[in-house]
Amino acid sequence: MPCPFHDPFKKARQDHGVLVNEFSGESIPMVLRHADVRQAARHWQTFSSDAPQRVPIPSEEELRSMRQLPIETDPPDHTDYRELVEPFFKRAKLPPVIARIEALIDTLVTDALARDSIEIVREFALPLQSRALTHLLNVGEEEATTWIGWGIHVFRDGENGETKGRVLDRYLHARLDQAEQAPGEDFFSALTQISFRGRRLTREEMMGFANLTFAGGRDTIIHSVSGIIEYLAQNPQALEILRDDPKRIVAASEEFFRVLTPLTHIGRVCPVKTDVQGVTVEANARMSLGWAAANFDETVFPDPEEVKLDRKPNPHVAFGFGPHLCLGAPHARLLIRTLLQTLCDRVGKITVLESKAALETHPTYQRHVGWELLQVKLAPR
Questions:
Q1: Cα separations in angstroms, 86 against 14, 132, 151
Q2: Quick check: 153 and 129 in contact, CB under 8 A?
Q3: Which of 268, 286, 205 is nearest to 50 (CA)?
Q4: End-to-end distance of the chain based on CA atoms, in angstroms?
């Protein structure tokens, strides 16, 4: 079945293996080939994440003051920081949490089926992402009402990003203050109680963990959910294929992560002058790891612009690679697998009524990363 998302990096990947992009006057070479991306992701000494506010592209110096943890550190700090919070992100594998996610998605699908139509991005995917996060962080689901109000991205949706950054900061400080005064079993309380190398975390470190939890993985989940629903609307036979053998859902989820890859690339800083696939990167300048380009590398993925629901092997890098592998991967996998199972069980047909693509546009490429608007009608089985 054809992939709804075109690969804009094919020619550059085949011809050069690298594409130089301009971001706010900074030239950043993006590594494109699967093997090269994985190799660079492993070599944190050469391609460092120890760069506060500069790992995301565009950089976020004007949007936040703290270093996001653990992502903006390198081993051994990254290893030790990650171990502190990993138990919360592994909650997605616990039966009680799985049951809550199943109930949540069933409720959202029930509501969608009862409507004449529903706008998937803001009325389904955004509430799903926010409400599911409450179960991962072990806070009351009512807290999601506030998070939903922040939109698709906590910095880059709606009002000025710097203003939105301050809103997030105030919220996180208030939650951490509350946790220090009356600690519980939630994520914020854990940040106030855990020890790092024999000491309590500083408030800045707590904010670094919390900021990443809300800023990272938010729009990527939302775009993944909307992208999958649009694909199933255009390819109804895919639902039948999955219904015929539910064991295919795991492989299908991984294939959707591969073709959708909402995070196009991520930045790394070269501590010393470095050759990046023939492009010179000066000391303390950046390159990027092209996750989306690597996921369409035809030397690794036969017929990469075809969606193969049973594709195996599928060594995609939608969650990164190496020591900085995405903390939220188990949570994302739980959401998408549960969504697919629920749609198979309860939805007979999805009809797109109106759509508007979300495009990431630069002088050297334009990439479809999701949907800004996706109005659909869901019919029951």
A1: 37, 17, 26
A2: no
A3: 268
A4: 23
What tens digit of pLDDT does each residue of 115-137 get? 999 999 999 999 999 999 999 99
Give dist(CA 134, CA 90) in Å, integer. 14
Beta-sheet pairing, 266-270 with 285-289: antiparallel
| Residue 81: predicted pLDDT | 98
Question: Which of 336, 341, 348 has its CA nearest to residue 378?
Answer: 348
In the numeric block, the tokens 């959202």 are attached to 108
Binned at pLDDT 50, 70 and 90, residue 53 comes out as: very high
Query: How does DSSP classify residue 202?
Result: P
The angle, 0 to 180 degrees and rounded to 10, between the axes of the packed helices 237-244 and 329-346 is 100
Nearest to 8 by CA among 368, 249, 347: 368
- The answer to whether 256 touches 227, Cβ cutoff 8 Å, is yes
Amino acid identity, position 125? A
In 3D space, the residue among 328, 357, 377, 69 whose CA is nearest the CA of residue 221 turns out to be: 328
Distance CA 259, CA 353 (A): 23
Amino acid at 238: A
Q: Please provide the average confidence, as pLDDT, over all residues in the chain.
A: 96
pLDDT score at 3: 61
Q: Minimal CA–CA distance to 137: which of 18, 146, 75? A: 146
Beta carbons of 370 and 358 less than 8 angstroms apart: yes
Query: Band of the pLDDT at 141, cuts 50, 70, 90?
Result: very high
Residue among 283, 280, 258, 260 nearest 270 (CA): 283
Concatenated DSSP letters for 20-32? Answer: EEEETTEEEEEE-
For 43, which DSSP code? -
